[in-house]
Amino acid sequence: MIKIHSIETFWAHEWPWIRVVFFTQWCLMKCLYCHNPDTIPLDGWKNYEVETLMQTVYKWKGYFWTKWWVTISGGECLLQAKELIPLFKRLKDEGFHTCLDTNGYIWSKDVEELLEYTDLVLLDIKHLHDPDHVEITWVSNKHTLDFANYLEKNNKKFWIRHVLVPNFTDDKEHLEDMWMYFKNFKNLERFEILPYHTLWVHKWENMWWEYKLSHVKSPTLEQQLSAKSILENYLQVVKIRG
Ligand code: SF4
C-alpha cells in the first residue's frame, strides 16, 4: 500500500510534457515555504494499491502525446521507497517514463533499488550552505548532497530544482557556490529556478501553522534573470520555471 495525499492527472508544469503525478504523504523536513504543508504530517493520507494507481495512469494514457510520463512527488516520496518499487517496475515494464521528485534526504537499499527503475530525478536543493539549509528546512543538506553525488557517479540523469527566495537563497555568493559545486556534473541535465511565491500561504493558515515568511515578496523578473545569468556562467541549461 502506498500512502497518497493527492493525484494530479494532467500536470503540465514540465511543459511540453504532460504527466500523471502522485503526491505521497509525509516528509521529514519542514521547509519555511513548503508549498504542500498538508503533505508533511503522517496523517490524512489514503492508501492505494499499485494496481489502483496503474488504472489511473491507464485512464489518462490517451491524453499523452508521444510518450507516457509518471512522476512521484510529495511530501517526500522516498520515505515510501520500498512500496514504490513494484509500482515503478510495472511502469517501466509497460513503457512509461518514470520520474522521482525528491529532497534527497532519505537513503536506503530500497532507494537504491527504486533508482534502478527511475528515468529522471528532480532533486530539490534548498540551500548549498548547511547552516542556511538547516534554517530553511530544519535538517542538514549532507544527505541531499550525498544523493546528488550518488546520481552523478551512477549515471542517473537529474535536474536540480531551487526555489529563489529573496534574502534567503538568492545572494550572489550562494549562487556562485552552487555552480562551482555542480559545474562538472555530467548527469545534471537542467538547473531550474523556481521563483518563490506565496500562493500556498492559505494552506499553512488552514493548518493553524505560523507562516514565517509572510513579509517576503516574490523575486522580481530582474532578480530572477540575475540569478539565471550567474548560474549560466558554468551550467549549460538553466531555466526559470513559472
Ligand atoms: S521537502 Fe518539500 S514537501 Fe518536504 S517540507 Fe520541504 S517543500 Fe515541503
The average pLDDT score comes to 93
- Broad shape: globular
Radius of gyration: 18 Å
Question: Gap between N and C termini, in Å?
Answer: 34 Å
> How many helix segments?
8
Would you state the CATH class?
A: Alpha Beta
Reported by name, the CATH topology is TIM Barrel
| Bound small-molecule species | iron/sulfur cluster
Order of helices and strands: EEEHEHEHEHHEHEHHE
Q: Count the strands? A: 9
Number of domains: 1
Q: What's the CATH H-level homologous superfamily?
A: Aldolase class I
| Beta-strand proportion | 15-25%
Helix share bin = 25-40%
Major sheet characteristics: 9 strands, mixed
If classified by CATH, what would the architecture be?
Answer: Alpha-Beta Barrel
Structural class, from helix and strand content? alpha/beta
Task: Give the low-pLDDT segments.
Answer: none
Please explain how this structure is put together.
- The chain is α/β, with parallel strands linked by helices and about 240 residues long.
- It is built from eight helices and nine strands.
- It has one domain (about 1-240): TIM Barrel (Alpha-Beta Barrel).
- It has helices at about 50-60, 80-95, 110-115, 130-135, 140-155, 170-180, 200-205, 220-230; strands spanning about 1-10, 20-25, 45-50, 70-75, 95-100, 120-125, 160-165, 190-195, 240.
- Strand 5, helix 3 (about 110-115) and strand 6 form a beta-alpha-beta unit.
- The longest helix has 13 residues, at about 80-95.
- It is globular and about 45 Å long.
- The structure holds iron/sulfur cluster.
- The site of iron/sulfur cluster has 13 residues, from loops.
